[in-house]
Design brief:
The chain is an alpha+beta fold. It contains 27 helices and 16 strands. 49% of the residues lie in helices and 15% in strands.
Length: 678
């Protein structure tokens, strides 16, 4: 934990409020400051590993106040209440105010779970959707996580847990002091600290060896399955945070085998299962009665391999399976806190022997993100015609980088100058990047699944496509960010009343699809904004998106859940929309990149279906595809070249080879998914 002073805390609070003021100003209303603070709070909770995902949702009624919610793993409900004053001076929030906020959250849960509370609310509002979702999931909820977030300080307990009517209720308070500690620690979450001796009544016997080189200690232990299940029951996905992968459910052979062994042969689980690999930053030992070593306390526990083993045992625990005979072998590597980010991904990469851990799981220091970060520090925007200075778009690869960069400036004048060059509203994170990219690449349903899940999907697709971060890629990424942010502002101005994040994702995706991704991103980068024709187009598209998300949702469906389904995107994609002339004239023109020798149709005919499909597209179609891919930044270089080569062959009266056609068919399918029309 970082040692703080009142001066440091006051500076942090001032910077927090300045960020909120700027973002609210960009969105066009001072009234939005509490909502912006709530969004910031939700991002903090996600980064801290407290929740997987959540959405802002403002609802107040007699005895009820909620500002955000989310449901994790179908059995955990997260409810958030913000106490925001906007006071730039440090101020105290009384424990009674905190208690009152928790009571209002509990009252909402009781009303929404026991009765159709949503029927009292406006059907087109976020609050209706929230209450309906909670009511429909109420019987499955086992854990209720209540969060009170405030920009003040408080002496109220940070965490309290109780068991009420079979539901575990966890109350967490995040005041400005706790937020400062988290952001100043350099860690992506609060460390998990477990006193085994206190929790389970005994320490865990172990064997240990200190490496002569490498600066770590390796420990082997046999962990009771019930211990592991109870730890996961409390901390959940926070245990797996450094092994980004989510539990794969009991569908693959490995997970089904784990489930069946736990149920049918628990005594053999130790023999059949490879166990887990975990890391910690510190261990406290105790001595066993026989004179050996035992683990009494673990600091900063993370499971980096064996996530499906842990989650499967927990599922069995929830399902009342007897775990008394289940034991799990564990390798625990003790690594100094300052080297966790360096060593843990390597352990996760090399230790896994069950379901393959892909490079997408190890994205924290991925070369792609490092390259985007470097570009964001060196690439300036074009100098505006109004004489204002050029700026940079700041990519925050690791949380707190922006604040740290400001702090490094020696004087107030230099800090101000740095912020003018790097405006807070031009800061974006890894999950923001994934959101901008996936919406543009026609995945609004994935964007609607939440920041973390969408990021995982983005990384998997990034690895599959082989895209690298060049200066051209960075500039077009920023252009997509400009489109997204402008769409947010325009949709806010329409006063729809709810589902803004979903409306933005679907409006952006429809614009991209309808124009076959021919919107001139280079022009948007150069102008650092959109023209009036594009803005009006987005407003029109947002109305279509509202109709698809709300009016055309299946009967009884939850809108936010409907938005996550690919079927929802199929409906949006099929909606008729005529591109306005003011947009048409700015679109990039597709056509041949070069004049190929020869003319006429192909001289040869083949029975191979892939070759026949390539011939149906025609020379101009393949030339256009190659040009489209180059202009939009889609597809890999070899795919663009193969498309061009196929077009040249067909234009010369020759069909592509069977091998070329097989690859061409795949390329065409991917291009069509991304909006290209031959």
């Amino acid at each position: 934990m970082v040692k703080k002073t009142d001066k440091q805390l006051a500076r942090f609070l001032e910077e927090l409020h300045q960020s909120i003021l700027i973002e609210a100003d960009v969105e066009g209303s001072e009234q939005l400051r509490p909502e912006v603070f709530t969004r910031h709070a939700i991002d903090t909770l996600i980064e801290a590993g407290e929740i997987e995902d959540a959405a802002p949702c403002d609802h107040r009624a007699r005895g009820v106040e909620v500002h955000g919610y989310g449901i994790d793993d179908e059995d955990t409900l997260n409810l958030i209440c913000s106490i925001y004053s906007g006071d730039h001076d440090l101020h105290a929030v009384t424990p009674s105010d905190i208690t009152k906020a928790f009571k209002r959250l509990i009252t909402f849960w009781e009303r929404a779970s026991e009765k159709p509370y949503h029927e009292q609310l406006e059907e087109s509002s976020d609050a209706y959707d929230m209450a309906f979702h909670v009511h429909s999931m109420a019987k499955a909820i086992r854990r209720l996580n209540l969060f009170v977030i405030t920009d003040g300080t408080t002496s109220a307990p940070r965490v309290e847990v109780d068991d009420s009517a079979g539901i575990v209720v966890r109350r967490s308070v995040w005041d400005v002091e706790r937020l400062f500690e988290l952001e100043s620690s350099g860690q992506p979450r609060e460390p998990i600290d477990i006193d085994l001796a206190e929790r389970f009544g005994e320490s865990l016997p172990c064997l240990s060896a200190v490496a002569d080189t490498g600066g770590y200690e390796a420990i082997l232990a046999i962990v009771p399955g019930s211990w592991l299940a109870e730890i996961y029951d409390e901390f959940g996905a926070r245990l797996l945070e450094l092994n980004v992968r989510s539990f794969l459910q009991a569908t693959g052979k490995v997970n089904r085998g784990i489930r069946d062994t736990l149920r049918d042969e628990p005594g053999r689980f130790l023999a059949y299962n490879n166990g887990i690999s975990a890391t910690a930053s510190a261990i406290e030992f105790a001595e066993t009665k026989a004179g050996g070593r035992a683990i009494a306390r673990i600091r900063d526990l993370q499971i980096v391999n064996g996530g499906q083993t842990t989650a499967s045992i927990h599922r069995a625990f929830v399902g009342k399976v007897d775990l008394s005979e289940v034991s799990v072998q564990a390798k625990l590597t003790v690594v100094p806190a300052e080297r966790l980010d360096e060593i843990v991904p390597l352990i996760s990469r090399f230790a896994n022997s069950q379901n393959k851990v892909t490079e997408a799981d190890l994205s924290s220091n991925d070369p792609f993100h490092v390259a985007v970060e470097e570009l964001s520090r060196t690439v300036w925007t074009p100098t505006p015609e109004d004489g204002l200075r050029a700026t940079r778009w700041f990519y925050e690869r690791a949380r707190g980088q922006y604040r740290d960069a400001v702090a490094q400036e020696a004087t107030p004048a230099k800090k101000k100058a740095w912020k003018l060059a790097h405006p807070p509203n031009q800061k974006f994170t890894k999950t923001d990047l994934a959101k901008y990219a996936n919406a543009w690449d026609l995945r609004p349903h994935d964007v609607s699944r939440g920041a973390q899940k969408n990021f995982t999907i983005f990384m998997a697709e990034l690895k599959r496509s082989g895209v690298t971060a060049t200066e051209e890629y960075f500039k077009r990424l920023v252009a997509k960010a400009i489109v997204w942010k402008k769409t947010e502002r325009l949709i806010h101005d329409q006063n729809y009343g709810g589902y803004r994040a979903n409306l933005v994702a679907y409006s952006v995706a429809k614009l991209s699809h309808a124009t076959t991704q021919r919107v001139d991103l280079d022009r948007i980068w150069a102008e650092q904004g959109l023209d009036a024709a594009h803005e009006q187009a987005i407003v029109d598209l947002s109305r279509i998106a509202w109709s698809v998300l709300v009016d055309q949702a299946p009967a009884g469906a939850n809108v936010t859940e409907w938005a996550k389904r690919e079927k929802c995107w199929e409906v949006m994609r099929s909606e008729k929309w005529e591109i306005p002339e003011g947009v048409v004239v700015t679109l990039k023109v597709l056509g041949r990149q070069a004049t190929a020798a020869g003319a006429g149709g192909p001289a040869e005919v083949t029975d191979d279906p892939a070759v026949a499909e390539c011939l149906r597209v025609g020379a101009d179609g393949w030339m256009a595809l190659s040009n489209w891919a180059k202009q939009s930044g889609n597809l890999q270089g070899w795919q663009r070249k193969l498309s061009y080569d196929v077009g040249v062959r067909i234009s010369r009266g020759r069909p592509p080879s069977i091998k070329q056609a097989a690859q061409g068919k795949k390329i065409l399918a991917e291009a069509q998914r991304l909006g290209f029309t031959p």
